[in-house]
Design a protein that fits this description.
alpha/beta; 6 helices; globular; binds 4'-phosphopantetheine
């Protein structure tokens, strides 16, 4: 049974994240989507809201194959707690590489048996980020190609005409 932890902020989950989850499920028996509880970061959605959106978006996946959770503190501690084999991360462009490279090596230094598996999302999502989605939504732009319909509704409700970028 191979398990991967897919960590992130997911503020909110996008079609790019969902693409990585479905690709991850082809490689791993189980994917644990772990939302970072980050008190310093000013997120648009609460941890609960972010987890609910991921659960809703993945509700057709067998519960034995996916789990949506949150974690505090060091990722490697959480990976160990879960007994996971790998960390799953999406990589979109060269600009992601530096940060991902540093994190992967630091995580491996902290927990030597853990490797990070990088997957590339479909090219349609290669320029997509939660930050840009929040920005476009906050100015009333159309984000329907980037997030599931119910996430779009939540973004509209949250923005209410105000900028939350
Ligand atoms: O979606 P994001 O914001 O790119 O995800 C970043 C995340 C959550 C993977 C990263 O910030 C993280 O792992 N934070 C937990 C704290 C930690 O372990 N830091 C050391 C990483 S080398």
């Amino acid at each position: 049974m191979r398990t991967a932890v897919y960590p992130g902020t997911f503020d909110p989950v996008t079609n790019g994240h969902l693409d990585i989850i479905s690709r991850g499920l082809k490689l791993f028996d189980r994917v644990i989507v772990a939302v970072l509880v980050n008190r310093q970061k000013n997120t648009m959605f609460s941890v609960r809201e972010r987890m609910d959106m991921i659960s809703e978006a993945t509700k057709n996946t067998l519960p034995s194959r996916i789990e949506v959770t949150s974690f505090n503190g060091l990722l490697v501690n959480y990976v160990q707690e879960c007994g996971a084999d790998a960390i799953l991360r999406g990589i979109r462009a060269i600009s992601d590489f530096e940060y991902e490279f540093q994190m992967a090596l630091m995580n491996r230094k902290l927990l030597k048996q853990v490797d990070t598996v990088f997957m590339m999302p479909d090219e349609r999502f290669s320029y997509l980020s939660s930050k840009l989605v929040r920005e476009v939504a906050s100015f009333g732009g159309d984000v329907s190609a980037f997030v599931p319909g119910f996430v779009e509704d939540r973004l509209k409700a949250k923005c209410g005409g105000k900028s939350h970028v």
